[in-house]
Amino acid sequence: QVLLVESGGGLVQNGGSLRLSCAASGFTFSLYNMGWYRQAPGKERDLVATIDTGGSTNYADSVKGRFTISRDNPKNTVSLQMNSLKPEDTAVYYCKARGIWVNSVDYWGEGTLVTVSS
Q1: What is the per-residue DSSP string for 12-71?
Q2: Which residue, of 34, 43, 91, 114, has the greatest Cβ tally within 10 A?
């Protein structure tokens, strides 16, 4: 059974930092590209950052220079370090896994809420 469990969300002041973690189980983590997405109230779910099986990363323009995604294959975790947080970063943050082969399905976690107060 595939399971992605996010943690680390919470309330933080403008300019503060948080570190999100996603614990994965039920699949061969090293063969999956991982990503963080977020969904603000009333908006669509958007990409925040991705990291592939080789460690290459990609970021949304809005978070470049502030957020860092990383993965720890032996521990089956992917993390998102968020610095210089802004009120517009307020959202539910979701972890996603997608296998490296064609037609792989996406697996999603339940999300963790990040609230940045102004």
Answers
A1: EETT--EEEEEEEESS-GGGEEEEEEEE-TTS-EEEEEEE-TT--EEE-GGGTTTEEEEE
A2: 34
